[in-house]
Design a protein that fits this description.
Length: about 375
């Protein structure tokens, strides 16, 4: 996408000169970042070759796993902290309290380390051990709670809100609640950074954008920005099984069925991040396309992506790529579609890439994933 003007000329010259000139071009692209905060965002756009070939479209993944905390949520974490600072709610010595499936917590803990705040994270017990280990490593105080639905007062989100309120009274430096689901500083991060980056990287030639909903911050922020640049950009939503948004977009009913092993996505209500963008979207609203992607459809996409293209991605990225393929089929060949590569698969090695776990869920896995498998070919 980004033109490298002198590569064409260099090809005609010696191999050595080619290498030197390529290195110069690459070095020119490397930004020097002044610390953690400055390192969030400006991620590359990576062409997904198999998905593109299968659909006749150009399908790109925004490499959010390259953020310094390792996920798309670093952007939201940074904006939530900056917003609280600007409003005078977060002061030196203050605590950041949040309910999270893990990635937002990792982002908040690391931003907190860089800026001098401590972090208290409430996480459902069901989330991967790898994310919990990273949170502890980052210095967050972890409160593990049973995974119960949102309507239960002990749901991790509500629990974290109450904990923040209590700590605000007792902690000498005060405490803030990140409230990522209903704090639109989250959406604003994607409206001000992810969206404009995608627009610039595709030189405005993007035809469609699609991703799943966790808080809805990514979808609403990127969707709003892209629609403002070009109202014809198709914005898609890919829902894992067990989430209610597909039914909500198609019929207005918040209803779900089935389950998914993906983490960080799968919403059962219209969050403020979505609502503030103009959802409900059914009647000519903000989202134009919605689909469900099952784990059976999605997982083979990331197994192949690892084995054939070298990228090891997590479960939500599988749903996103499955959605991008469905949107590509809807639009037809020749279109440019962007989705999100949310985080690395190593964050879920004990689940998404674990044969025993997959077997226990009745999910498909490639033979090479079995530790007993020996590739002698
Ligand atoms: N993928 C992963 C791995 C996540 O942690 C999250 C955030 N919970 C998402 C996708 C969804 O992003 P958003 O909250 O912006 O909808």
């Amino acid at each position: 996408l980004r033109s490298r003007p002198f590569l064409g000329q260099v090809k005609k010259q010696s191999h050595l000169l080619h290498m030197e000139t390529w290195a110069m071009a690459s070095v020119g692209d490397l930004g020097v970042r002044r610390g953690f905060v400055d390192s969030v965002g400006n991620t590359p756009l990576i062409r997904l070759n198999a998905a593109s070939k299968a659909t006749g479209c150009e399908i790109y993944g925004k490499a959010e796993f390259l953020n310094p905390g390792g996920s798309v949520k670093d952007r939201a974490a940074l904006y939530i902290v900056k917003d609280a600072e600007e409003k005078g709610l977060l002061k030196p010595g203050g605590l950041i309290v949040e309910g999270t499936a893990g990635n937002t917590g990792i982002g908040l803990a690391l931003v907190g380390n860089a800026k001098g705040y401590k972090t208290v994270i409430v996480i459902p017990q069901t989330q991967s051990q790898e994310k919990k280990d990273m949170l502890r490593l980052a210095g967050a105080t972890l409160v593990e709670v049973p995974a119960v639905p949102y309507k239960n007062p002990n749901n991790y989100v509500k629990y974290s809100g109450r904990l923040a309120e209590a700590l605000a009274q007792t902690h000498p430096g005060g405490a803030i609640w990140g409230n990522q689901f209903d704090n639109i500083a989250n959406r604003q991060a994607h409206y001000e950074t992810t969206g404009p980056e995608i627009w610039k990287q595709t030189e405005g030639k993007v035809d469609g954008f699609i991703c799943a909903i966790g808080t809805g911050g990514t979808l609403a922020g990127v969707g709003k920005y892209l629609k403002e640049q070009n109202p014809n950009v198709r914005i898609g939503m890919a829902d894992p099984m067990g989430a209610a948004m597909y039914n909500y977009y198609s019929s207005g009913v918040l209803q779900s069925s089935g389950t998914s092993i993906s983490e960080g996505i799968g919403q059962g209500r219209v969050t403020a991040n979505l609502e503030s963008w103009g959802v409900p979207a059914r009647d000519g609203g903000a989202v134009d396309f919605w689909c469900q992607v099952t784990d059976e459809e999605a997982l083979p996409l990331i197994f192949d992506l690892l084995k054939q293209e070298g990228f090891c991605m997590g479960g939500s990225t599988a749903i996103n790529i499955g959605g991008a393929i469905k949107l590509a089929k809807e639009l037809g060949p020749g279109h440019t579609i962007v989705t999100i590569l949310c985080d690395l698969g190593t964050r879920y090695q004990s689940k998404v890439f674990n044969v025993d776990f997959l077997k226990s869920k009745g999910l498909p896995y490639p033979e090479w994933l079995d530790p007993a498998f020996k590739d002698v070919s």
